[in-house]
Amino acid sequence: xxxxxxxxxxxxxxxxxxxxxxxxxxxxxxxxxxxxxxxxxxxxxxxxxxxxxxxxxxxxxxxxxxxxxxxxxxxxxxxxxxxxxxxxxxxxxxxxxxxxxxxxxxxxxxxxxxxxxxxxxxxxxxxxxxxxxxxxxxxxxxxxxxxxxxxxxxxxxxxxxxxxxxxxxxxxxxxxxxxxxxxxxxxxxxxxxxxxxxxxxxxxxxxxxxxxxxxxxxxxxxxxxxxxxxxxxxxxxxxxxxxxxxxxxxxxxxxxxxxxxxxxxxxxxxxxxxxxxxxxxxxxxxxxxxxxxxxxxxxxxxxxxxxxxxxxxxxxxxxxxxxxxxxxxxxxxxxxxx
Length: 338
Ligand SMILES: C[S@@+](CC[C@H](N)C(=O)[O-])C[C@H]1O[C@@H](n2cnc3c(N)ncnc32)[C@H](O)[C@@H]1O
Known about the structure:
The chain is 27% helix and 20% strand. It has 338 residues and is an alpha/beta fold. The chain has a single domain, classed as Vaccinia Virus protein VP39 (Rossmann fold), CATH 3.40.50. The strands form 3 sheets. The chain has a 9-stranded mixed beta sheet, sandwiched between helices. A two-stranded antiparallel ribbon has the order 7-8. Helix 2 (68-85) links the parallel strand 3 and strand 4. The longest helix is centred in the first third of the chain and has 18 residues, at 68-85. It is globular and about 65 Å long. The N and C termini lie far apart (56 Å). The model is unreliable at 1-6 (pLDDT under 50).
């Protein structure tokens, strides 16, 4: 069925749902939120938008079957907003599948303010064959920085793979194993610099233990991005929150975060409650104030207090299927001094 309904809607103004020293979460339309944000104020943007594949999300508020042109212009509109909000030297990451990454990359390359850094490909373990097509086996991330200042870049490492049975290293170091000695952990296994092909990730999954239909990326993906292109204290923005993996990774590594989703944000709150315990505040931390138009954030804070939204957050339960969050949500990436 032809559907030219736009995802850009004034019907979902952003409502502040959670405020803490670490992060601030809104429910509403990403464009409506970003229109209230200050230019050059964010250190890192990560975006994992709906892919326009007709997926059934938990929200009636947007449409995942737009006509190609409508989807293209919606993506370009919010991408331009993220570029405006990003500070000079800040980094932009876009997660998508190749069909759209080619197109978005071509278009982003034409924006003089952006510098292309990388295309990161990641293995899609549960890909399935499609008739008369080559088997799709990867997703990708486009990585850009905004010109005008020095960009952050940290070398991120992951633990060298070992044999499941004997625990021995399976990587061939081509005679250079000694070079990795200084990056060995307590078990003598070295941590290796990640490249632009990630074989150890699985794609977004539908978490069956959640009440709502949400798709979430493995923590590893936002974790690597955040470690690579930001430093502790920096502000990370993700306006397509989903299950909250970006906010989780940011908070885990002492970055601040600003989040948003047009659907129910309960899954995000549940995840943060499980991993860290929510710590709602009656104010907006100073560090976030500079990211918003003053009149917007002041009005939102007043409404948040008047409607006692903070009490609802206090009632959020932890995720029942996560027995030991320190094990389930373990960090798998490190930035080590050389
Ligand atoms: C692919 S999911 C993001 C998953 C997330 N990266 C994670 O790991 O949990 C995309 C999300 O974008 C949200 N979304 C769709 N349109 C939106 C809009 N206009 N503004 C804000 N959020 C939107 C959907 O509700 C959905 O939760």
